Protein 1
Amino acid sequence: MELHERISAKLSKFRPSLTLALKQRVQERLAEGRPVYDFGLGETKGRLDPGIREAGERAFREEQTMYTDPAGLRELREAVLQWLGLSDVYGPNNVIICTGAKQALFNTFLATCNPADAVLLEAAPWVSYQPLATAAYAFPVMVLPLGTQREWLKVTREDVERNLDARPHAKLFLLNNPCNPTAQLYSAEELEAMLSVCAERHVYFVLDRLYWRILFDGRQYPEPRIDEQTRPWLIQVDGMSKNFRRTGGIRIGWAVGPDDVIRAMVNLQSHYTSGPATPTQAAALAAIRRPYDPGIVKELQAKRDLLHRESKDMPHVQIWPTPATFYSFWDVRGCFGRRTPAGSVPQNSDDVAAYLLDAAGVITASGAAFMQKGYLRLSFATPDEDIIHGMRAARQALAALA
Ligand code: PLP
């Protein structure tokens, strides 16, 4: 067997997830005793809520360690519908509990796409959408906004229509609202325009709403319309990893959608994971069964304000508004072609990210991971001192660009 044949063609082009690569760079710098201001990882920190911890502990103590229904614990599926305000619209058979939102997305691609079907993604698609689609033998396509609608890289109904016209094999359009990495929030009208075109054309509208609780300045989440027309075509993906503190590793997510699609996912999942770990399902149940504590949103809003204050008039950079999520999105194209004190000349967001890390110890996520090489994403779910010192270090480094 030739070397190039050892790994399947579809996986051989994969790069490791950005998150893991960043974690490694943080460790390396820390081991060298150099300061690190970590804006790279998209993970909530802080203390785990004792209610969540105790539910997980109790599940182990009470030996709740046998297989669950492959669709997930029935109580958890019911609680998911309550959490999403959908108990009047759907039943537990419309919900599948998965190993994180990632698996809910992978299940969605696997359950709906035939080989080479196109899946339409946003203009700055979250890093794992493409690898997951490719692994499901689907064909990822970015929907690029045209003309004046280009503002904040938001996609419109016209953009979706144009791409559907061009791709008769498009099976679904996937929207992340609010959006990682751009932090933009589509309004109810914008959402409805895209949802209705998908329903009219019998294309799935997949709504990844993983950050839906983290909305600032009193904003309300724009819920998608669910009625006879949209119900067969709407699949919602959500989970535990962003709306609570320190819960990314609990690895619980879910999908809610039409009976046949969810049934296909459960069937599939019964063969490849048998559903997620039982104790963490118990922990997730404890988390979402209660009224949501808005403390985390208040805290993140204060961090957003702090970051915006500390990064005001940052040289060569345009910082986007942050109505939601915990990401600040930076247009760094103004840095391209300038000279660093060491003599290099950044040409893309990878270069700017590398410069900020080397010169300032500031870790960011390069837009290249999101197919947008003019931008950086900074996660501000990080201690206040790191925001303050990190922004000062970044300012100094950027001001030194000639
Ligand atoms: N969707 C988006 C937009 C995300 O940002 C992430 C995680 O970063 C995921 C899905 C996957 O979430 P999970 O950790 O629950 O698998």
Protein 2
Amino acid sequence: MIVAIDGPAASGKGTLARRLAEHYRLPHLDTGLLYRAAARTLIDEGRRLDDVAAAVKAARGLALIDFDEVALRGREMGEAASVVAALPEVRAALVETQQRFAKRPGGAVLDGRDIGTVICPDATVKIFVTASPETRAQRRALELRSRGEPSNYAKVLGDILHRDRRDSSRSTAPLKPATDALILDTTDLDVEATFREALRLVETQLDAKDATQLRSAVP
Ligand code: CDP
């Protein structure tokens, strides 16, 4: 089973993807980390974020050693990742790694922006997680504060709106729900309620797929 979770910044998709992966005992890939790590390599090398050749090299050269989550999770790296992620050549360089992960025996859970639309168009279940920008800004400000990063609600909200615009308007793999994605609005849901609702969506989808298979097996 492949579970594709997409959504905008701070919608709760990462936490949900982790919980679903634990529940179904599937490996989980947070694809945002790939773009964050590529951006970080460029910054460490003192290069511009729109240096296509260097960005592709950084994306192709990613190794597990690059995934120091604490260093990658910060506010600035999210913004830098979104600039690098708008480069079609960088996205192309990362497709195969993500698809290989998704095709592991038994399946996987992947979260990002284009999992249901580009990386895994045939995913078993696709969930598009969303929430109002104000709720997402509150969550992100709390998260940053809990990690000791200074955070100001108005600035975080501004960042989120700016990043939503860039991610949704880019020409390659823009942030948008797949036509067959189930929409999960978490504005009024906490982590536990989001997980329960997502579980219900996954199970309903699995039951529907089982029923379709049974029907098509009837001569
Ligand atoms: O946690 P948050 O949603 O803020 O960030 P993230 O998921 O780590 O993604 C950081 C940036 O990487 C996003 O703003 C996107 O521009 C980009 N990204 C993408 O384009 N495609 C993905 N599959 C994942 C992330």
